[in-house]
Each structure stands twice: as C-alpha cells, then as structure tokens.
Structure to design on (384 residues):
C-alpha cells in the first residue's frame, strides 16, 4: 500500500486554476484536490463547524474544501488515528503553499469538479455559496443507531455535503450561527424532498454524518447583519440559492435528481428491500429479456411510485409510533391493492399471499414482483 506521504508529494499541488468570483472580492480556485477560497486581505473571519480549525477563526489565509485522496490508503486512514489524519491534512496544505495554522478547512469524498457555485442578491446583500454534495455513501438521519465508537477510532465517512458561504456584510456572532442553522434546515428539507435514504435505518436522511458548513464575512463593512430571521427576505433568498446549488451538486456528484428518485425500488430500498429478494417472491414464468425490459417501465412508472410513496408514508408513521401497526397494515394493504388491482395479475394464490404479508414493505415487494410479471407478460404478447 502506498504511504500517504508519497501520494500527496506526487500530486500537482501548486497549480491554481480560477473557477469563480464570489462576493467580497473572493476568488475560488481549483488546486490539487481542493476548492480554495482566498480572501483579498486579512480583514475577514470565518465560522466553521469543520474539524480543521473549526469554530470562529480570525483572518484566515484561505478557506478550503479538500477532497479525499481515494484508494486503499484513504480507507486505512479513515479507520486510523485522528492524529495521523491531521498530519496528512497539514502536510497537504503546506505542499499547496499555505500556512496550515491559517487555513480553515472542510473535507469530503466528493470531487471538486462537481462543485456548484453561485451568488444571489439577498435583500440588498450579496451572498455567495460553493457546494459539493455526496450523500449516497453516508446518508443518515439524526438519531440513527451509532455505527462506531469515536473513543476507539477515528472515522470520516464518504458522502458529505459541504457548503461554503461568503456574505457581503459584517455579521454578529449570533447572526452567523443563525445563518448556519437556517441553511442546515434548508439542506434537510431538500434531502427529504429527494427521498434520499438513511443507510443506517429505514428513515429518510437528514444529511450525511459528516456535513460541514463555513461562513466567511468581512470584519468591517458598511452593511451589518445582527439577526437572521428565517422569515426575512434575506433568509428566503439564501434558501432559494441553497436549493438551486445543492440540487445541482447532488445531480453532478451522485446523479440524484427528482426523475431518478422517482423509482419504486428506490422507495423500497431504505427498508432493506432488494431486487434479489423480490425475485424470491415469484418464480417468474417469463423470458429474461421481457423481465429486464419490464423493470424500468415498472420502477419508474409515476403512478406506481405515487402508490408506493403513499403506503410507505404510513409505514414511516407506524415506525414513529403515530399509527398502530395492525391498523396501518390493514389500511396500507387496502390502499395498495385497490390502487393497483387494474394492473395486477389475478389468482387465488396471489390473493392469499397478499393477505399473508405482515408488513407494508414486504407487501409492496410482492406487489412490485407481480407488476413486473404483468408488464413482462404484456411485452411478450406484443412481440408475438
């Protein structure tokens, strides 16, 4: 295995390529594995919840979103010591030409070429953002079961949402914290709308386990923000900007779009349902080509997805303790069968098996298999 020292020494560390101009005269560069925001002078401060020089930081030399190196070396380091990871990060910044003690940094497995960058006029105050977003590999919901003990080992998960902001106004400490809270809420709402799943429970994700935000502001400016009210024109404009660029970053990094998420199997997957399990439900009598051609037609059928989404919403409320399990199962079964009966194959055996399902995800798994069989049969008849 390559040692990290040899890897970072071999990278193209010094070349900077400008990619965007943010408000406050800040230039964004692509350099090595990083996206680098360089303020024009020392008159700035940053609030960051990242682990590298996080908290309030005065006069940063640069704010950097650093991509991971990949490969076996990185996987070993993910489970290694925090001290070793810190040494690697500091040496990377030194080789890039920065003072490690004056850098504020976030870290992610996302590629910086997939960053979405933009600026908005928020009620007369310019706000810029640079977002990278991967969530397929580390999506989680707040309160999920713990996956590791941080007292025993360091862990930095793949799939991180990093949002770097520049605000063209002086901000009080509380206003900076309120802005971070605001965009965190916006991020979670967008993830919920995308139906991005938690990898650690059947719930919808609220983010990844390693999401990071940083806000950079001038220490002195003619405009000043003392409070960020979530219902203000400023807040609404910032939320709109986050929605646009987070959605774009999801698309570029993970190909996570509304059309791709409109998928019955995507809806079921957060409950541990797989295609292999579905195949066990029915020993399909159809030809393989007809079955394979039927899959996308059924998975992405908006009507089918709407039915599955509605029924699984009942399951979510059962899991949350808001609906009695048996009552929810009975209602969900009636909803699903009634809504899909015009495209389900009919037999006494299927009726019996539907009645025997003891959970809504298992019921939908069976119904999905039945729908695929029906669609494959129709395709076969059309081809003969």
């Amino acid at each position: 295995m390559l040692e990290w020292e040899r890897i970072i020494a071999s990278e193209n560390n010094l070349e900077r390529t400008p990619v965007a101009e943010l408000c406050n005269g800040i230039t964004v560069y692509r350099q090595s594995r990083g996206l680098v925001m360089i303020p024009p002078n020392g008159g700035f401060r940053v609030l960051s919840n990242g682990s590298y020089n996080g908290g309030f930081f005065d006069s940063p030399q640069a704010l950097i979103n650093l991509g991971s190196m990949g490969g076996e070396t990185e996987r070993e380091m993910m489970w290694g010591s925090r001290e070793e990871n810190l040494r690697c990060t500091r040496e990377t910044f030194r080789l890039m030409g920065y003072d490690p003690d004056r850098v504020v940094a976030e870290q992610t497995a996302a590629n910086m070429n997939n960053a979405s960058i933009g600026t908005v006029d928020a009620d007369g105050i310019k706000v810029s953002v640079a977002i990278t977003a991967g969530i397929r590999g580390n999506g989680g919901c707040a309160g999920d079961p713990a996956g590791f003990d941080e007292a025993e080992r360091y862990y930095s998960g793949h799939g991180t949402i990093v949002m770097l902001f520049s605000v063209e106004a002086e901000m009080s400490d509380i206003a900076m914290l309120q802005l971070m809270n605001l965009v965190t809420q916006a991020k979670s709402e967008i993830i919920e709308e995308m139906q991005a799943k938690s990898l650690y429970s059947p719930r919808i994700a609220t983010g990844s386990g390693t999401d990071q935000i940083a806000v950079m502001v001038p220490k002195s400016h003619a405009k000043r923000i003392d409070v960020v009210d979530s219902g203000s024109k400023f807040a609404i404009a910032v939320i709109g900007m986050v929605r646009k660029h987070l959605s774009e970053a999801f698309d570029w990094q993970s190909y996570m779009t509304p059309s791709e998420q409109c998928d019955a199997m995507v809806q079921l997957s957060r409950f541990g349902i797989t295609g292999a399990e579905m195949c066990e439900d029915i020993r399909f009598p159809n030809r393989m080509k007809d079955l394979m051609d039927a899959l996308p037609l059924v998975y992405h059928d908006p009507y089918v997805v709407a039915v599955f989404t509605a029924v699984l919403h009942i399951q979510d409320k059962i899991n949350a303790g808001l609906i009695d399990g048996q009552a929810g199962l009975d209602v969900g079964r009636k909803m699903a069968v009634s809504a899909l009966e015009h495209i389900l194959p009919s037999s006494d055996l299927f009726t019996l098996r539907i009645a025997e399902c003891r959970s809504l995800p298992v019921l939908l798994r069976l119904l999905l298999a039945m729908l695929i069989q029906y669609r494959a049969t129709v395709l076969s008849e059309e081809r003969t």
